[in-house]
Amino acid sequence: MPSYNTVIALPTADRSRAFAFARALGFETPGELADDGVPEPLRVQLNEQTALMYIPTGGFGWVTAGRPTAESGTSECLVSLQVDAVSEVDELVGRVDAAGGQVVSGPEQKSWGYTGTFTDPDGHLWEAIVSLI
Q1: For each successive 10 residues of the chain (133 residues), what is the average pLDDT?
Q2: Do 104 and 117 touch, CB atoms closer than 8 A?
Q3: What span, in angstroms and rounded, lies between the C-alpha atoms of 126 and 77?
Q4: Whole-structure pTM value
Q5: CA trace torsion 33, 91, 115, 80 (10° rounding)
Q6: All domains of the chain, ordered by start, with CATH?
Q7: What is the enclosing helix (H) or strand (E) of 63?
Q8: Rounded alpha-carbon distances, angstroms, from residue 49 to 19, 99, 105
């Protein structure tokens, strides 16, 4: 089976806000800066093989051939960041509010792992987790 790098695309209403959020959480955002001071495209490198691409809401329909996107506050997916230590979950979730996101559920031990859930400024749902599985 071939090996693939993964890029997750999410719509954003505000590229600058999405960029500031990603940088505040410590993610690399490679690329040349556009006139607005944000890399174009806005790629957030989650690890060596996975990236997230924020696409302006107005242009997202071009990628999806006009298929409607979920309304703000509605999640079609969960971006799950698997980390190595409980302290990484705590640190990441601890930076969310100042970065413009919102903590949905603070870090806590669940039967499947230590996890905290939050949204980015556009309302997309994220999770930081140390998995027990």
Answers
A1: 80 95 97 94 94 89 77 80 95 96 96 94 93 78
A2: yes
A3: 9
A4: 0.83
A5: 10
A6: 6-66+73-131 (3.10.180.10)
A7: helix 57-63
A8: 20, 24, 27
